[in-house]
Design brief:
This protein is an alpha/beta fold and 370 residues long. The chain has 15 helices and 13 strands. The strands form three sheets. It has an eight-stranded parallel barrel, surrounded by five helices. The chain has a three-stranded antiparallel beta sheet with strand order 5-6-11, with no helix packed on it. Strand 5 and strand 6 form a beta hairpin. Bound molecules: flavin mononucleotide.
């Protein structure tokens, strides 16, 4: 029913500015969750689970591999809805110490022909204090599912004071997080990507681990896809040695070297969606090879179908996230992916964790899928 309603509404939604469409959809979505029986209805319509999915990654027991990527729940308010709407985990944020308006609008652009989004949002968010009270209110009712919290620095904070912003955000939000993601890879905060150095990463991880409370959350580092592989391997080693539990690969790209709409080739911002798929897979493959089987990898970039989710897992991701695909395919995508993965696992008679990084072993299975 929700799938049909979405199909009927999609032309209208896509005629609106993307940010307006986001608000038009998320308001009623939250209201639906608040209705008596709303959560039950959402789970019944949109969620899919399987015992073959269960895995422990970075010490966390995940019920399944399909996550919502950072940037969709920028206010902390959508986490309960998304957790009921088929996502096995949700990453909220990016949150910065102070509230920020982000860049001037328009700042989000859709290109349905190539399945591309370009955004230059610039960390619009209500700040850590507001996020903290929202999460606290949610948790007083009941923590609904695995919650990652993504943190960043304010635009006005110079890079030589960035450590202090990450420390403040970490300290404020760690209690509410099953994991913390450090975002040093958004292209829309000037200079942020310059923090992707071995020196800064070492210092940052050392400080956050010092600030982490007993039983505090594992830390993930989110990287850009635009790092040369010769620079990436030392960064990965710094993350591993510095005590990160894993990495998130990848954020949006500044490259326009894709078959995309002419307007998109000159549009400023970070590109996500279908064209990012191969580039992020290459980094996942490299990271899995370099870091071995114990390191956790969340794979994100260009997933808009079950086969693409499976390909990311075979490339080396323990878990996957989606954002752009959800915009283009709609609310059935998480359960469509989950159902597909379950049928692939049944066919191969194994569990999800057996497939991580096993491209060679399961190549035939992947090829047999249309
Ligand atoms: C509109 C928009 C806003 C985003 N905001 C954030 C953000 O605040 N923090 C972050 O780490 N990633 C952010 N991302 C990047 C996504 O989390 C993800 O890494 C990227 O979009 C690639 O996945 P996809 O191809 O499935 O969209 C944003 C992406 C989009 C499209």
């Amino acid at each position: 029913m929700i799938g049909l309603a979405y199909k009927a509404l999609k032309p209208l939604l896509f005629s609106l500015d993307p940010e307006t469409a986001h608000e038009v959809v998320t308001g009623p979505a939250r209201a639906m969750l608040a209705m008596p029986g709303g959560e039950f209805f959402l789970r019944g319509s949109l969620a899919f689970g399987s015992r073959r999915f269960r895995s422990t990654v970075a010490g966390i027991d995940f019920p399944g591999p399909v996550g919502m990527a950072a940037g969709f729940d920028k206010t902390a308010e959508l986490y309960p809805f998304l957790s009921a709407a088929g996502f096995h985990f949700v990453e909220s944020g990016t949150f910065t110490p102070l509230p920020q308006d982000g860049n001037p609008k328009p700042r989000l652009f859709r290109y349905p022909g190539s399945g591309t989004l370009i955004n230059r949002m610039g960390f619009n968010n209500p700040g850590i204090e507001r996020a903290k009270s929202e999460f606290a209110a949610q948790d007083r009712r009941r923590r609904k599912g695995i919650r990652g919290i993504n943190i960043g620095k304010n635009k006005i904070t110079p890079n030589d004071a960035a450590l202090s912003d990450y420390s403040k955000a970490f300290t404020a939000l760690q209690t509410f997080a099953d994991y913390i993601a450090i975002n040093i890879s958004s292209p829309n905060t000037p200079g942020l990507r310059e923090l992707q150095t071995v020196g800064f990463l070492r210092e940052l991880l050392q400080e956050l681990i010092r600030l982490r409370s007993a039983n505090g959350p594992p830390i993930f580092v989110k990287f850009a896809p635009d790092i040369e592989s010769t620079d990436f391997v030392p960064l990965l080693e710094a993350a591993l040695k510095g005590g990160a539990a894993g990495v998130i690969l990848t954020n949006t790209t500044i490259s326009r070297d894709f078959a995309i709409e002419a307007e998109a080739t000159t549009m400023e911002g970070g590109l996500s969606g279908r064209p990012l798929f191969d580039k992020s897979n290459e980094m996942i493959r490299l990271a899995r090879q370099a870091a071995g089987s114990d390191f956790a990898i969340i794979g994100v970039g260009g997933i808009d179908s079950g086969p693409r989710a499976l390909a990311k897992i075979l490339a080396g991701a323990n878990l996957i996230q989606i954002y752009s695909g959800y915009i283009f395919q709609g609310p059935m995508l998480p359960s469509t992916i989950a159902r597909f993965l379950d049928s692939a696992l049944k066919k191969a008679d194994c569990n999800l964790s057996d497939m991580v990084g096993q491209e060679a072993r399961f190549r035939a299975l992947l090829k047999s899928i249309p």
